Amino acid sequence: MIRVVLPQHLRTLARVTGEVTLEITRPVTQRSVLDALEARYPMLRGTIRDHITLKRRPFIRFFACEEDLSHASPDVPLPDEVATGAEPFLIVGAMAGG
Could you list the residue range(s) of the whole structural domain that residue 53 is in? Predict the structure, then answer.
């Protein structure tokens, strides 16, 4: 089981509380996690990544094991701690302002 933590606004949209768990076969990648998340919660399509290009939306960041993976290739396997469910995959809404 993969554990995914969503920002509050996406938890509200998906009508979930706390972490989301997903069953994903290996290799576990950003793409496979996001594909499974959007398949299970179709209302999230287009909120995390663009509908057409599937690129990460601005102001959305991905973290795993205290590492920013936002600019990593979506097809690179995630750390084993995430793949085994020991650590969550974090989707974070970035802050901006001035």
Answer: 2-93
| CA-only gyration radius of the chain, Å | 13
Three-state secondary-structure class, residue 34: helix
Question: Does residue 94 surpass a pLDDT of 90?
Answer: no
Residue 62 domain-assigned (yes or no)? yes
- Euclidean distance between CA atoms 48 and 61, whole angstroms: 9
Question: How far is the C-alpha of 88 from the C-alpha of 21, rounded, in Å?
Answer: 9
Q: In this predicted model, what pLDDT tens digit does every residue of 44-83 receive, in sequence order?
A: 999 999 999 999 998 999 999 999 999 999 999 999 999 9
Look at residues 6, 8, 14, 12 and name the one whose alpha carbon lies nearest to residue 43: 14
Phi, psi of 30 (to 5 degrees): -55, -45
Predicted structure pTM score: 0.92
CATH number assigned to the domain comprising residue 55: 3.10.20.30
